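As a warm-up, study this chain.
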Amino acid sequence: MYNNIYNEEKVSNFSLPKDKYSICRLLFFLLGVCMYLPLTFLSGANNFWLHKFRNVTDTTNSAENRTTLQINYSSVNLSVSTVCNLVFGVFNITLSHRIKILHRVFVGLIIETFVFFIYTISVEINTDNVQLLYFIFVIASYGVLSATNTVVISAGNNYFTRFPVAYMYITQLGQGSAGLIGNLLNIFSISVFHSDIEKATLLYFIIGSVIYLSTVILFSIERRTEFFQHWSHAVREETDKKWHSIKEIKNVIYKIRDLLIILGIILINLITTNVSVMPLVVSELDDTDSVWASKLIFLNWLCFSFISTLLETYFSPVLTYLLYNVCNLIGRLVCVGVKNKLSETTYFRILNLGLIVVVPFIWLCNAQPKHHIPLLFPHDYQYAILMVVNGLLSGFALLYALDLIKLKTDKSNSDLAFTFYGFYINIIEAVLSPIGILLVNFL
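Now compare it with the structure written out below.
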């Protein structure tokens, strides 16, 4: 798809344009965040969706009496979005090369920004009498967001390989930080408004929209700089060239076969825990008078009052989302340090351990309502330990999988490998997403 017209090793460093004030580094970090923010940002507002789809006549808001919309929101959302992802995954494979990568990334970011603004506007609309209609609106909007994000991720992963390797790692750092940033913003918003969940969510979505808008503006400015233009044109795009042959696709699949196995394991983990069971887990003291059920009161013991106020918040945002994403980021950083010290066989064993042990253990935590699967891990500290292990394994495995693409491909076929990587994810998600719906109804 690309013809190399530039060899960076043959050019002296002094002749290369400079990234003034490291603005492009900041842009690539923000682009990495925006590439994965939709995957975590909306799920981080889990308490808001539970509030929107609650039984308005049940003043107790008991987790054991959750409505059908509450129970199935995360899983249905995943199922619909995976269908949209699959359709646009086919677009990535067959037609995306006819549109320049820069345009795919930039226009995609604009669409995602627009969707975030729509979500923000909808937060304070009273939907108690039209819950099903609002449910459909949320699911459909997320489908658009997911489809667009599929194009942005595929194009972005291809595009950033043109720049020096440091910029690729900065982008990956942004991707790994997306969930953590979203969780911290969620916790901050709740700490500001405390019990007013609608105002807290409004602030949360406003900040998310600002992140996207800032990225679009910075992208629009930076792409005209000499540094960006230089690396952006390191390879020439041929939008009128035919797509890769079946033989080329088979060759790339064979080269990254280990990556595909790892991704399959990661996605099974994700679908059967993160987007289905974990949003339903509640504190062991949820039905008691203890403040731990709604606030992490022990954090008041911290010396710094600001940190104490910031983290004194709800159980779900802290243990289900913040702790998991912190450990996910740590897992990525650990992978950078040890990825060349262990064999692929060892990595496979670690991943299998995560799939065989950690995933079923999460099912056995305090996810409500529970009917068939027994409750073997009722305590909050047990759930927290599982979040730590699950986050570390997932973060480590994902970064290692991405490194396998760079390790086993070259510039002539890396674009195809990254595109097929995204398409493969779309296929596996579409096949496995119904399992999440079945699982939460079987609990």
